[in-house]
Each structure stands twice: as C-alpha cells, then as structure tokens.
Amino acid sequence: MKQYLTFLIRCFRLSFVGDGRYYAWMFFLSVIVLLGINAYCKQFVLGLGVTGMTDQVSWGLFIANFTFLVGMAAAAVMLVIPVYIYHNRELHDLVIFGELFAVAAIVMALLFVTVDLGRPDRFHHLMLRFNFPISMLTWDVIVLNGYLVLNLHICGYLIYCAYRRREPSKLFYIPFVFVAIAWAVSIHTVTAFLYSGLGGRPFWNSAVIAPRFLASAFAAGPAFLILSLQVIRATTTYNVPARALLTLRNIVTVAMSINMFLLGCEVFTEFYTDSAHVASARYLFLGLEGRHALVPWIWTAITINTIALVLLYTPLSRANRYLNTACVLLIAGVWIEKGMGLIIPAFVPTPLGEIVEYKPTLNESLVSLGIWAFGLLVFTILVRVTIPVLAGRLSFDRPYEAEPAPAVQDPMEIRR
Amino acid sequence: MTIRIWEGQSFNDPPPEPQREAPVTRRSFLRTSSAAVGGVAALAAALSPLRDLKEDDAVSIDKFLQKHYKEMTPKEMEAALARISADVEKRYNIRPDIRDIKPMAGVEFVYALNLSRCIGCRRCVHACVNENNQSRDPEIQYIRVVEMPRGTLDLEKGNHHYNRPTVPDAGHFYMPVQCHQCANPPCVKVCPVEATWKELDGIVVIDYDWCIGCRYCEAACPYWARRFNFTKPSVPADRLNPEMSYLSNRPRPKGVMEKCHFCLHRTRQGRLPACLEACPTGARKFGNVLDPDSEVSQILRTKRVFVLKEEVGTLPRFFYYFDERYPRSLDPQAESVAKSLGHAQPPAAAPAAPQEGHR
After folding, report:
1. CA-CA 20 to 30 A from A347: which of A283, A285, A377, B249?
2. Is B21 near chain A, with CB under 8 Å?
3. Which residues span the domain enclosing A282?
C-alpha cells in the first residue's frame, strides 16, 4: 500500500518534469482549461441560456462532442483486438496508449454530459432513482463508467507491474481485456440507441445509426492514436515501430470506407424515398426554406473525409506527412459529421415543423474547448508518466532517470 | 506469447544502486512555490463568476435531501410545501396557497379540440401563461397555435409565427398543440431519474425538484410539448397566481423542464383548464373519459376524432376533430365570435389582461 502511494506520488511529481516543449504545451492547455472553467462558472450562475440552445434545438455542441468522444474512447479496442486476438507484435507495446486515450476520452465524454445538465447539483438523483433498464441514458451511465473503470484497471495494473518489475499476472488483466473489447462496442452502441430509439425524431430513428457510429469511431480513434504516436516518436526514444503505424493506417482506411458507405446508404434512403421524413436530411445537406446553417459544415466534412480517404487509399500516405494530413482531416471530418451533422439536424425542423437554427455561443465553445484541453492534459500526463515506467527508467527501486540523449530514430519515412 | 511490457533490464539483473531523489534547493523551492501560487491565483480568477450566485440559488440541506415525490411521507410533503411556500413569500411577498393535490378516483382526463371552431386568437396561450406562473422573460408558453393551410395536416406546412391584424384567415385553419398527456409517453420512458411520470388520472407530471435538466424528454417528445428553463424564470410579483400545487404551477427553478399538466390544480378539484375557460368560441372540451355521459365521451363516440402522429404509438389523450357540419369552413358561430373580437393576440410576450379567477 505504501509502495503504491509512493508510486502515485512519484508519478505526480514526474508529471511536472519535462523539457521546454512539454512546459509550453502544458501551460497552453492549462490556460484553455482555466478559460473553460471560467465560462462554465458563468453558465452555472446564469443557466444554459448562455448557450445557443433553445427549446427548439435543445441539444447542441456539448452533446455533439459527447457523442464524438464516446466513439474515440471505443476506438482503443482497434488496438486491443489485433494484439490480444491476432497477436500482432508491432502494436503490442503501443496498445497501452490506446487504453490511456480511452481513459482521457471517457473523462471528456462524462464532463460533456455533466456541463449539459441544467441541474448538476442534483447529480446524486441518479443514484437514488435510476430508471433502469427503461431509460437508455441510465444504460449509458453504466457502460461509460464501467468502461472507465475497466481501462483504469488494465492500464493501472500493467503500469504498476512494470514499476514493480513484476511479470503481470494474466489472470488479473487478460479477462478484463476481453470484457473491455465487448464493452467498447457496447458504449458506442448504447450511445447510438440513445438517439435511434426516439420515434419522434425520424432523422435518428434509423437502425444504421449504431453501425455508423462504430465505423466512424473506429476510423477517427485510431487516426488520433496515429497522431499521438507520431508525437511520442518525435519527442521520446520510445520504440514506435513504423509497421505499427501502417497497421493502424489499414484499420483507419477500412473503417472509414465502411463509414462512408453507410453514410451513402443513409443519404440514398432519405432522398430517394423523399417522404416527409427527409426534412432534417434536406436541411443538413441542402438547406430548408432559406435556412442552411449546417450546409457548409456537412459539405466540408464530406470533402475532407473524401480527401483523407483518397490519401489513405494511395501509397502517398505511407509517408508520414501525408499520413498525418489524412488523420487530421479525417478527425475533423468525423467530428463534424457525428457532431454538428448528427445531433443538430434531428432538431430542425421541430416535431411541429418550426425551423429554428442553432449556432453555438462563445461561452459554450469555451466550455467545450476547456474540456478538450483538460482531456488532452490528462492524456499527456498519463503518457508522460507511462513512458519512463515502461522503458524501465522509473521503478520502485530507483527514481526517475531522465531521457537519454535521443538515439537515432528510425528514418521518418515509414515506407518499408 | 511472452508479456514484456517494459524494456531494459530483465528480472535476473541485480537491482541498481538506489539513488536519492534530487534535493530541494532554495532556487527550486522558490520556482515551484511561485508556480503554485500563480496557478492558484489563475484558478481563483477563473472561478470568480461564482460570486454572482444569488442567495436563493444556494442549495440548502433540506432542498438537497428532499426526496422524490413518490417517496415522500405526508409529513415530509408538508415540510416541502412549507419550504416552497416560504421561498415564494420571500421572493414575491405573496403567501401562496400551495397544496399537493392528488388525482380523483375513477377519473381519466381527456381533451378534445374542435378545429372547426378554433379561430387562432391565442387567448388560450396567454391564459395558460397567466394561470401557470410561467416565466415572462423569456416567456415560456405551453401551447403553440399553428396556422395551417386548408387541405393538409402536414405540420411542416404550418406557420408558427403568424401575426395578422385579424384572425381567422380564410385560407387557413388553426391547430393549437400542447402536451398530449400520452398513455404511452416517450418522455417518461427516457427520463433517467424518473422525474416525470404518468399519474392515475392520465396526466403526465414533472417533479421540478427532482429533474436534473438533461432534456432527454424534450428530445423524445414527438409533439414538442416540453419547455426548459434555460434561465432563471422571472414572474412579476403582481402577476403571480398564488393558487398553486406541487406538481403543477408552483414557481420553477432554473434548469428544469416544465409543460402543460391539464391545469391539475384546477381540474382535480372539479374546475376546467384555464385554456378552455379562455377560449371564446368553445373549441376546447375537457372531461372525464371514464364517465360515459361526459361531453368528451360523447365527442369520442360521435365525432370523427383523430390524434396527431398516430404512427408514433404514443396514444395521446388529446383529440382533434373537424365538425362534419362545416367540412370546408369555420363554424359560423365561431366566425361571428371572431368578428366581434376583431384581433389576434401576438405570438409572444404581450401580457394579456389579468384573467378572472386571479387574486
């Protein structure tokens, strides 16, 4: 127990140690977190009226980000499956970063639902009267918190074993890894059911929502991990094999192809049928009665997703520069598609046919940025303390050893 | 496969010499502490908007520990009502008559609306606001009257914001929509904390002290009947209706849902809903569907009634019908009422003259 506390304290202290770039990055994130806290305090005092949400569009940027991040969290499984089921060696040493990112993403997702509540002071009502299993939101509370605990356990156990220089006991984590695989699918499925189960919102009331969620998550999540691993490669001596990045690239390519296919299915069904249900889709893609706030967004998403996919299909993206570009475009594209493109149009027009547009306010955007910065802060710290532990430079019998002078990295081109 | 999650030494290597952690020097101490002070100061600055919290925003222990409506004993309910009453008196300087009014046995309420008589004057909208202590700024309205072109029931063709010098317009009919008190309510299904439920007389109610403000019910409602308090509701003290009940028109806090509750503080005591009383043409009919002699029972038996969005399976208790005698026009009686009234009330705001029954 005492050993474990020492471990935590050392990790805490280690999170304040780093080079100039590290300090600059952490300072930058902290400033945004503080701006976010400030904006949230204003919202707490004045109510959700400081957001762009209305009775007509009653969910906005917060729920959009929440949906996106649940997907990002689920994406860790795209590293776990190759490693634990197909015994992929290159990804083996990297799977822990996927799990750490899942932790950060779930923390962000939970914060986004919390800031969306009108009465955060009544959060405990969830524990006193829990409308389970009828309300899908209660399912979401269970699966999200469960997934957080699972990932904290798996990462925490492996890292602590490395710190103690002990061989991890398979019994203590392999079963959890397999539970987490199924669980990852469940968090995204349940979140999709949250929307697709509402008969009064035809835009959401479609069985393809859950598969589409999974496909886009399995594209955007690994894309984010590719970018993170590139940073780790560039700033530490931790071994990130080029082949691992290529494996992830393949995963992203396949998942994104499926995502675009499902989007096409949706678009066809809506527009070819051309029933009264098409109003929301029409508003999203073409605009309705002169109102078209979302049209530039969705076409931007489709354009950059297509560019990303073309880059991924061609050998161009075997070069780092193009791979990174494709990942950035893809993350932005999926964020728009699953956020602004999925949540907002379901509210326009309202069930009574009124068209009211939604535009996030500055305050709302600051709160969202603050949560993103906080999540990245958590992820950075987790990665920052994990790498020396895994590299054997921090263990129970010796204090932290600074990073050795950067060895010659593999050539930056990941072409084989 | 072997699990080696760290690099470097293997188990058999002798442990390296323990090293001491870097000692704390004056310089490092000063640097650390000044960074810490700066961080705390920045955090305090970020938190500063909290200073604007009002006294009545504070959550007292009693409020915090107050139980769910269905779990309160009569004594606890009494205490809760006393607390609410004291809060109202403090804020508005009016002592309210607040009670917890239960459903009557053998009663299930149903609403029927004669579209051949509705002239779209919006008197129901404003009577409802006055009766139920909705926020005036911004104004929350439970009833939305949609101006529909004759020949369609597609709500997307309707106009919500019509503002004509006189109503009705010949080419249109008017369709007021409010909570349909569904027998299979999607809002109740989705609420994660059971803050909204169906009562024995069919009214779907909200415990304003239990709602966490997630707005899932608002997304789930196919009739756009629910309203959220995005800001702290404001009701001028001289417009407060002091006749209140726990589950209906008592003042709501910020951050919770509200909606039409068939004026349960009136209807559970044998009176009619405020919207019905305000209707100048008699388009609105309300009553007990379990009583075969009630007007609504007769309407359901004899008129060709329909419900909105029957396909979503919500089983509304709110029925519409057109009078078969006047298939293509307004009921002449309503027409003459409209002529004598002359004007429509504007879509929002404009406070109507205080209605009878308000003290």
Report:
1. B249
2. yes
3. 2-390
